[in-house]
Fold this protein.
Amino acid sequence: MNSPHAEAIADCIRTRRTVKAYTGEAVPRAQLERWLDLACWAPSHRLTQPWRFAVLDQPAIVRLAEFLRGEPTIAAVPDPAKGAAKLAKLLDRLPALGAMIQVTWMRDANTAIDLEEHAAASAAIQNLLLAAHADGWAGFWSTTAALGQAKTLMWCGLDPTTQGFLGSVWLGRAAQVPPPPPRIALVDRVRWL
Ligand SMILES: Cc1cc2nc3c(=O)[nH]c(=O)nc-3n(C[C@H](O)[C@H](O)[C@H](O)COP(=O)(O)O)c2cc1C
């Protein structure tokens, strides 16, 4: 029999969804600090804690959107044909977010270590998403090209020469929660030895 605590964690993991539509409610700074603190409890080899965060409140998101709109090279990535439409969709969605966190990891010249650092920072993002969900908020781990470009990272005060882009974590109050995308059966993903 699982403890209520274990069931609550299982429920949080299962019911967390990727949410792209938000109500416009701002996420209070104290909430963000709590989630960032929980993100930092992720494991990292040698305890390097390679994650770095740039937190954007709603006025900062508006300023970022202005920057993206005014920077002609942004829309051309990943390819000029699709980039402009993707950017327009992004600019449409950004004003409804309650906050956004740009996440990077500190790159390492050693490929094996670099992979571990990337993995550790990914675990931190998952902690953050679960923490937000547990508090009744929603999130979206986005890797949309416009938000991960070097110019965008620099605008956020991150250094693309030493940091890799892991994603933009969108946060806010869900306007609409999509149904759970089904997971592949364990039998197709696991070998028991
Ligand atoms: C590393 C990573 C990057 C992602 N980037 C995007 C993205 O750019 N656009 C998108 O629509 N979803 C993105 N997602 C979200 C996935 O589409 C989503 O997690 C998946 O469909 C499962 O849905 P769920 O999170 O509600 O369980 C990303 C997820 C991860 C882990």
